[in-house]
Design brief:
The complex is a heterodimer of chains A (115) and B (110). Chain A contains no helices and 11 strands. With 115 residues, chain A is mostly beta strands. In chain A, 35% of the residues are buried. Chain B is an all-beta fold and 110 residues long. Chain B starts with a strand and ends with a strand. The chains are: A mainly beta (115), B mainly beta (110). At the A-B interface, β9 and β10 of A face β4, β5 and β9 of B.
Chain lengths: 115, 110
């Protein structure tokens, strides 16, 4: 099956610093990538959708100036959490899709802890 | 009403049992249906993908989609302790983002 990687898998940072998370599709070209966050024992919450070479589309309530998304190529998308605060601590997961058929493959997730 | 409804469980079954997981939905435009398995602190893993109505089988897993009833199911035969996880149903219309159920927590006891 298709493989999506994320890096880093875990990051601990101090409040006020910025954190970058990378998401890569390893064996397919992802026309669309998605970023989710997940709190303990809750389902996935879609943050934004990005298409290669275009600006990301953010879900209602997600601050675009805080969660900066770049989809520079068909295999790489990055999420930068700007000036992170403790309330940004969460599990961030990316996924990738080819075309509009619906099959989405998820990365292993990045656990962010802001102290 | 949420677009996708899924009983969160928890569901506990003995090893070897047949497990039935279900979701209902309200948007008739959905035509892509997926089941994901998520272990604690891991990303979701795609188990089954179905386009439109019908059945699909893969090993111990069978996915069913009934678009007329807006109802999808995942059956797990000969369940194993390693199947213990949260199972998420997900669905979408052409070109749109996935809509997820809340997930059903499954525990298979030896």
């Amino acid at each position: 099956g298709a493989v999506v990687s994320q890096h880093p898998s875990r990051v601990i940072c101090k409040s006020g610093t910025s954190v970058k998370i990378e998401c890569r599709s390893l064996d397919f070209q992802a026309t669309t990538m998605f970023w989710y966050r997940q709190f303990p024992k809750q389902s996935l919450m879609l943050m934004a959708t990005s298409n290669e070479g275009s600006k990301a589309t953010y879900e209602q309530g997600v601050e675009k100036d805080k969660f900066l998304i770049n989809h520079a190529s068909l295999t790489l998308s990055t999420l930068t959490v700007a000036s992170a605060h403790p309330e940004d601590s969460s599990f961030y997961i990316c996924s990738a899709r080819t075309g509009g058929r619906g099959e989405q493959y998820f990365g292993p997730g990045t656990r962010l802890t802001v102290t | 009403q949420k677009e996708v409804e899924q009983d969160p469980g928890p569901l506990s079954v003995p090893e070897g049992a047949i497990v039935s997981l279900n979701c209902t939905y309200s948007n008739s435009a959905f035509q892509y249906f997926m089941w994901y398995r998520q272990y604690s602190r891991k990303g979701p893993e795609l188990l089954m993908y179905t386009y439109s109505s019908g059945n699909k089988e893969d090993g111990r897993f069978t996915a069913q989609v009934d678009k007329s009833s807006k109802y999808i199911s995942l059956f797990i035969r000969d369940s194993q302790p390693s199947d213990s996880a949260t199972y998420l149903c997900a669905m979408s219309a052409e070109g749109y983002a996935l809509n997820f159920g809340k997930g059903t927590s499954l525990l298979v006891t030896p």
